Amino acid sequence: MADHITIRPATGTWVVRAGGAVLGESTNALQLTEGDYPSVIYFPRADIAMAFLEPSDTQTTCPHKGDATYFSIIAKSGAIKDAVWSYENPKPGLEEIAGHLAFYADKVTVEEV
To answer: Which residue ranges run through the membrane (predicted)?
Structure first.
């Protein structure tokens, strides 16, 4: 694992909302901090309403975490493109985030409740 990345359990209960709907709530989320970037909350897939997510063709590669796949959120107001990402097979040392989803804070609301 890269020395500048830390993963720890996110304390409390976390919720993600988009398009006026709650997409998920979790007490099992993870908090990933990478260098000086703001921390990102990763939600277990089991805690997210996956029926609102549609796989995207978008893929990116992070030199530290690996290949990311993306999802769009299907909301009543329309699709929120590439608002969600996941590392299906993260690099060694980061396996803990496999099976988790992260959300862009400028496209949805992620907050501790």
So the answer is: none
Residue 4 and residue 103: Cα distance in Å, rounded?
21
61, β-bridge pairs: 67
Residue 3: what pLDDT?
A: 81
Q: Rounded to 5 degrees, what are φ and ψ at 22?
A: -85, 120
CA distance 88 to 66: 9
pLDDT tens for each residue of 47-97: 999 999 999 999 999 999 999 999 999 988 889 999 999 999 999 999 999
Which pair of tokens denotes residue 82? 């590439």
What is the model's pTM?
0.94
Q: Is 1 exposed, middle or buried (0-12, 13-18, 19+ CB in 10 A)?
A: middle
Antiparallel, parallel or unpaired: β 53-62 and 66-75 = antiparallel
Delineate the domains of the chain, giving CATH numbers in brackets.
5-112 (2.170.150.40)
